[in-house]
UniProtKB/TrEMBL annotation:
Name of this chain's protein: cysteine dioxygenase
Domain of life of the source: Eukaryota
Gene3D superfamilies: Jelly Rolls (2.60.120.10)
UniProt organism field: Musa troglodytarum
Alphabetic keyword roster: Dioxygenase, Iron, Metal-binding, Oxidoreductase
Biological process, per Gene Ontology: detection of hypoxia
Catalytic activity: L-cysteine + O2 = 3-sulfino-L-alanine + H(+)
Lineage of source species: Eukaryota, Viridiplantae, Streptophyta, Embryophyta, Tracheophyta
Stretch list, region Disordered: 1-42
Pfam (any one): PCO_ADO
An MF annotation (GO) of this entry: cysteine dioxygenase activity
SUPFAM superfamilies in UniProt: RmlC-like cupins
Length: 245
């Protein structure tokens, strides 16, 4: 957490010394302001503290209770771009003219075995290909801009019926993601990328749709590795720091 406010208060107190009673009064007011500032965590710190409680007993395949989901969602809803040091004029949101889809910038905020917090910054036209979140609960907050999301549920497979796959693009945007638990190749939670195809193009005999429309379904083809068109570069996160007590 930053302490700029406290430093400013102390400087102001040093400068006001016109009389003993005024100095004493201002000193008391400054102390109260310092205590109030110290008791008010940053928006990012509130997200972190809430995640610690929401995912305290979590693990692969364990979804927090509806009350806990709503609690974390309300905390994320209150986060604004300025709370994480973002603004539209940052270079993350400019198309650098590589000839292909512009690169996505990844900002790492925190990670532990229970959950991770990160931000993806996408220039206009950037695309994150279809991918999954195996046995993970994902919270996403669109901090700025607009995006198109394509999401699928697996059909007739209860083991992964809640698994989501998404893709995003439209204007430059920033997305705050909370993953619980985070990706972990060694624990079997590697990220798998997919190529979407129309259901009508499914080779062979597809599953019965039980009266549902074909146009509402697709078949997904696994891609062998991270798609070449996806370029993710890391950058230093310059917003308020998370303090893990």
């Amino acid at each position: 957490m930053r302490v700029n406010g406290s430093l400013a208060d102390r400087k102001g107190s040093d400068q006001v010394a016109t009389g003993k009673s005024t100095s004493s009064s201002n000193s008391k007011k400054n102390k109260r302001r310092q205590k109030k500032s110290a008791a008010m965590p940053s928006a990012v710190q509130r997200v972190f503290e809430t995640c610690k409680e929401v995912f305290a007993d979590g693990g692969p395949g364990i979804v927090p209770s509806p009350d806990e989901v709503e609690r974390l969602r309300s905390v994320l809803d209150a986060v604004m771009p300025a709370d994480v040091g973002l603004s539209p004029n940052l270079p993350f949101f400019r198309d650098v003219g590589t000839g292909g889809p512009p690169p996505v910038t990844y900002l790492h905020l925190y990670e532990c075995p229970k959950f991770s917090i990160c931000i993806f910054c996408l220039p206009q036209g950037a695309v994150i290909p279809l991918h999954d979140h195996p046995a993970m609960t994902v919270f996403s907050k669109l901090l700025m801009g607009s995006m198109h999301i394509k999401s699928y549920d697996w059909v007739h497979d209860p083991r992964v019926s809640n698994q989501r796959i998404k893709s995003s693009t439209v204007t430059s945007c920033a997305v705050l993601d909370v993953l619980g638990p985070p990706y972990d190749d060694e624990q079997g939670r590697a990220c798998t990328y997919y190529r979407g195809n129309a259901y009508s193009n499914l080779p062979g005999e597809g599953p019965t749709l039980c009266g549902e429309r074909e146009e509402d379904h697709a078949w997904l083809e696994e891609r062998g590795s991270k798609p070449d068109e996806l370029v993710v570069r890391g950058a230093e996160y310059k917003g308020p720091r998370i303090v893990d007590h």
